[in-house]
Specification:
single chain, 614 residues, Gyrase A, domain 2, four-stranded antiparallel beta sheet, 55% helix, globular
Length: 614
């Protein structure tokens, strides 16, 4: 029952019969009628002026009369400045509702035979997941679900950054200062435990650096640099990396550990595997709390050696070139992307090299039609270069690559726990929002008759929904501020607000049972609010496709909020259980059921379940 196809075909038939010309479907423009005008859909008549040799108003009038007489779904029309506004019959909307109310697959497209690979999360194993990871994870998971809904087979992956100097810092600090502590002995969540030693390394290094600044060597250097006319603090801040690489005892020990790791030193590798196992155990608990999972994990300790053969072959093919120092580059200046290093002068890989190799391996593993990389917008340039290089290499999957770039997420104040002063751990954020849901539930008097266990269960359910919805409702490319208190507001654009509409519907439906179709068919006086609600339900598949086309769950979140808002208005304006007739009651129950079905499906695409009670 695609009303757009019905109207498009009807308009094409009208042009053919009235003016003797065939017009292609893509030349017919149909849009939702603007709110200030009467009607449901609007036909733009200006493209037909040459065919009809008439003014737009006259064409609109003739098309409207034809459609009214020949298309049974058209109930009325009006003409505004050459635009033809069409009103769809109540019978069409009633028939659609009857078919949709019990359709659990409504909006779901059949399998299209295509596969999409979505990479998201991609954490480092030297610290816990943080606030930025939450936005990344939720975007990746939701886009995966949206693509499944529009017919794709979806593969969810992440690449774990499990090697490098940052990981060695955590390892070295625990080795030097840990005194045998473990996550079990301290009761600290395993990934937080490892992160504790990463922080400890930074603290020890800062103290070492401060002491060195006051040493004879440090003061001599400062005296030599005074003629550069920069404040002392600014100089030391700028010099920090040089100190780490050239003078620091801790820096030297960390680099030595990394070299031993690369040489596969048994003791270092055993320590690395032990501490990574702790982190992975902690990550899994966070993933479980967020309700997400992955189909395959890739590890940088494996992928960092990938890509070199691609570079070698690319040099032979003239795609890459070697500079005098032995480093290898690609010239993308004609694409306005400058020259890009792909292999260092010592032959070691850079991230670009690894990403080229990883893309090739993923294609071999899964042969996806699309690869979606969920990565923050600070990596926009990197992915433009990566995708362009893969096109230059003529990789078969190069045209199916997309960078889902997203903005920063911050907090309105500094109340939440931060382990380094700037980064908020994911677990802390989840706990804070759940606690806020519990606090507000108590303040509203909703929890007073519940057991503590039931209170906690509801607070956790609502709190996590609040967190997910608040983050996903913002367009991905935009930066955002996450406000824990605002996220659980029952009256705002929030997950709990949408959930409350569903709970309200379930409360009504529990008091009624049986097939409503026959009685609902007798309802003849649909109000504008009822019609609008049906039209919103009708628009769900189009919204779903728009979300997939734009790689953005915000379209789904906005749709669910507006549908819930419309239902709340309908519920306020219309009696359901005490309706004016049995037909009205049956119709409104049917409408409620269809609304709940779509709300549930839409919110699940955001990773949010719907409770029976709140």
């Amino acid at each position: 029952m695609d009303i757009l196809n019905i109207l498009t075909e009807g308009t094409a038939a009208a042009v053919r019969n009235l003016y003797g010309e065939e017009v292609a479907a893509d030349k017919i423009t149909l849009t939702p009628t603007r709110r200030e005008f009467e009607g449901d859909y609007t036909v733009v008549t200006f493209p037909f002026t040459k065919i009809a040799k008439k003014k737009p108003d006259a064409i609109a009038e003739e098309l409207g009369q034809y459609l009214l007489q020949n298309v049974e779904e058209v109930a009325a029309f009006n003409v505004i400045k050459g635009f033809l506004n069409l009103s769809i019959s109540a019978e069409f909307w009633k028939n659609f509702l009857a078919e949709t109310a019990d359709d659990k697959q409504y909006g779901q497209l059949p399998a299209n035979g295509q596969k999409v690979l979505v990479e998201y999360c991609s954490p480092n194993t030297n610290k816990p997941l943080h606030l930025g990871h939450i936005r990344n994870i939720l975007l990746g998971w939701s886009v995966s679900k949206i693509y499944e809904a529009v017919g794709y087979e979806v593969v969810k992956v992440q690449i774990v950054n499990d090697r490098g100097i940052a990981i060695c810092k955590s390892m070295l600090a625990w080795q030097k200062y840990g005194e045998g502590e473990t996550p079990a002995s301290t009761g600290i969540k395993p990934d937080h435990f490892v992160g504790k030693w990463y922080v400890a390394f930074e603290q020890k290094f800062k103290q070492e650096y401060a002491d060195w600044q006051q040493s004879e060597a440090g003061q001599k250097l400062l005296a030599e640099k005074k003629n550069e006319k920069q404040p002392e603090d600014a100089f030391w801040k700028k010099y920090k990396n040089t100190y780490f690489n050239e003078h620091s005892t801790l820096g030297n020990e960390a680099r030595d550990m990394l070299l031993k790791w690369e040489a596969k030193d048994e003791a270092v590798r055993n320590l690395w595997m032990l501490m990574n196992s702790w982190v992975y155990a902690g990550f899994e608990k966070t993933f479980e709390a967020l309700g997400v999972s992955f189909d395959k994990l890739y590890y940088e300790s494996d992928t960092y050696i990938l890509g070199k053969d691609i570079i070698e072959q690319g040099q032979k093919d003239g795609i890459f070139f070697q500079k005098d120092d032995g480093s290898v580059w690609i010239d993308l200046t004609d694409k306005k992307l400058d020259e890009k290093l792909v292999l260092r002068s010592d032959g070691t890989s850079v991230y670009m090299t690894q990403d080229l190799g990883t893309a090739q391996v993923r294609n071999a593993d899964f042969a996806p039609d699309k690869m979606i990389y969920v990565v923050g917008n600070e990596q926009d340039y990197h992915f433009k270069v990566l995708f362009e290089i893969l096109k230059e290499l003529k990789e078969p999957y190069a045209d199916g690559l997309h960078h889902l770039s997203y903005g920063m997420v911050n907090l309105p104040d500094g109340k939440m726990k931060s382990r380094e002063g700037t980064v908020v751990d994911a677990d802390d954020l989840i706990a804070e929002v759940v606690q806020e849901a519990h606090t507000q539930g108590m303040e509203r008097g909703e929890f007073q008759e519940l057991t503590p266990e039931a209170q906690n269960d509801i607070a956790e359910f609502v709190g996590k929904a609040a967190l997910k919805f608040f983050i996903l409702r913002v367009k991905a490319e935009k930066s955002m501020v996450f406000d824990p208190k605002e996220s659980v507001d029952m009256q705002g654009q929030t997950g709990p607000y949408v959930q409350n509409a569903y709970v309200r519907i379930q409360s009504v439906l529990r008091k009624n049972a049986g097939d409503l179709t026959a009685q609902a068919a007798d309802y003849t006086e649909m109000s504008a609010v009822e019609t609008s609600l049906i039209q919103q339900i009708y628009g769900y598949p189009a919204t779903l496709q728009t979300a997939a086309d734009n790689y953005d769950p915000a379209f789904i979140a906005d749709y669910c909020y507006n549908l819930a808002k419309s239902y709340h208005r309908f519920y306020t304006d219309h009696s359901i259980l005490k309706a004016e007739s049995e037909a009205a009651k049956a119709f409104r129950l049917q409408l409620s059921k269809a609304t709940a079905n779509v709300l549930e499906k839409g919110m699940l695409l955001l990773g949010i379940g719907m409770p029976e009670r709140m």
